[in-house]
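FORM 7B: Structural annotation worksheet

SECTION A. Query
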Amino acid sequence: MAIEGAVIKKKKVSRWKRFKDNKELLFLTIPGTIWFIIFAYLPMFGILIAFKDWQIRGNFFESLIQSPSVGLKNFEFLFKSTDAWVITRNTVLYNIVFIFLGIALPVTLAILLKELLNKKLSKFYQSAMFLPYFLSWVIVSYCLYAFLSPEKGFLNSMLTSMGQDGVSWYTEVKYWPFIIIFMSQWKGVGYGTVVYLASICGIDKSFYEAAMIDGASKWQQIKYITLPLLKPVMIIMFITSVGGMFRSDFGLFYQLPKNSGALYPVTNVIDTYVYRGLTNLGNIGMSSAAALYQSFVGLILILTTNAIVKKIDEENAFF
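SECTION B. Predicted structure
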């Protein structure tokens, strides 16, 4: 008993000592902890809305308690809709393309920027690629409209000047999968490039010096040093991206096509479908059910992907 008491006392002392040694760092985490409690954990009460026929009665908690429960009825809007297959197909397929391009393009550009001898030019390219990331999709949509406008768009003006017929871009379905993918990568590639470029800059230069002494070419240095050492970052980005496979960038799919009904077969995704359903029907429970469905599937995908990665390469797994 005396030994057990001594062990417990020692644990308490060590914990208190760790707190005293790290109290400055712990105090720095307080604002972030408060932010997460207010904006990440307290809103989780809203999950219950997905199972209720939401009716506003006084404040939020009164409405939450007094609104009648409807079970899984709110989920029927998604699963029994005639458009369920289309929006699910679009959401998943686009995100699969975004995930793989979102890794391949930034890694390639980061390696190219690192290999540029002119560092001022490298910084200029880096800034130029990063700039679109800060633009809203509303601004980007109007810039794109200047190119694709049926009447005075740049592309149609160029086609007519060459004796060709203009294209009604906002009603032609076949072009938009490529436009969506291109614009998505154009806007987001700069951010990914900065992430991978920072990782490349953190690689010990002695690896490259040893490789050059052994006569390795640039391609061999990239293949046997840069890419293997970028692997952990690539896996983390891949796992987090897979978790958002059932979510879409709302502005990309709503603002960019100008909400053109003719383009719904290739631009309508779960997020835009729920938004249109909410604005037309005003059903808050339905939109909450869709958000819960997306979050739940995202959690399953993250856990599944992480488990697969853990089986293949345990060191690079998320947890």
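SECTION C. Observations
The mean pLDDT is 85. The first helix runs from residue 2 to 21.

SECTION D. Sign-off
Analyst initials: ____
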